[in-house]
Amino acid sequence: MRKPFLLASKFTLLLVVMGFFSPVGCSKTGPELAESFLQAGDNSKAILVWMVLICAAVSIIITICFLGIGNSQKKSSGKEPLILDYLLLAGSITCGVMVFVEANFNFNLLQYGAYMIMTGWGASLVLLFIASILPSR
How far apart, in whole angstroms, are the C-alpha atoms of residue 1 and residue 111? Predict the structure, then answer.
């Protein structure tokens, strides 16, 4: 019962991945933004920018591994640790918000990539919450 919502939450995390490689702000993509922070000598912001992508990607990969390995063996246990999904999603959101706050971005400077990322975060959080309250079979 929980599996469709868990998969849907990972598909919405793909919005975070796609948004990262789209113009996020100041006509720069996520990698370009991290590079500008590195050139400015602000390594911590560059790491935070990359952590937005890394946390989302790791969450997707973990779900694929749990579902793939479980199905290739006898039967899927459906026991993917949801706390890990919550922690990775919280990590991605926290890193993104910290970059936004520390870089003194203005909402007027955000472009569609940033809105894709925020939509992916919100939708994934709602779907993950639904998956966590449903019984696993």
Answer: 36
